[in-house]
Amino acid sequence: xxxxxxxxxxxxxxxxxxxxxxxxxxxxxxxxxxxxxxxxxxxxxxxxxxxxxxxxxxxxxxxxxxxxxxxxxxxxxxxxxxxxxxxxxxxxxxxxxxxxxxxxxxxxxxxxxxxxxxxxxxxxxxxxxxxxxxxxxxxxxxxxxxxxxxxxxxxxxxxxxxx
Length: 163
What we know:
With 163 residues, the chain is α+β, with helices and mostly antiparallel strands. It contains 2 helices and 6 strands; from the N terminus they run E-H-E-E-E-E-E-H.
């Protein structure tokens, strides 16, 4: 028995992800990540869950080095995290992550990430991620406003318009 689709008039398009140009020049912060053997899965590439760990490492460095976030005063929790995988990372690849603050709200802000590996002297985009970071008071167990000092540092570092 042969089934034919009569209602499909449109030609099936190819995957658009491969056509998307991801620009790292809008990112002002980049850090290198050390890969560990335990990051690999049975297929010999970095396990998908490790990408979130890499984003966490880069996020922590970004906050310490550029924003000087005061962890003792103000906490941050991740409200949402997502990632698009584009190319695998294998043992021996040199990995770097770009991080930037893309949006600043009242109690939360968005961080964007681009994970790249260096191949023949050129950066190859392996994934693009995003986290929604919520400023959090651990005593009251509730979101709080982004402190003015940290907000100002994010705006200044990223050269963002006032929010």
